[in-house]
Amino acid sequence: MPEPIDLPDDFAVDPHASYDRLHALGPVHHVRFPDSSTGWLITG
Question: Which residues have C-beta within 8 Å of that of residue 18, sequence separation ≥ 6?
Answer without folding.
Answer: 7, 8, 11
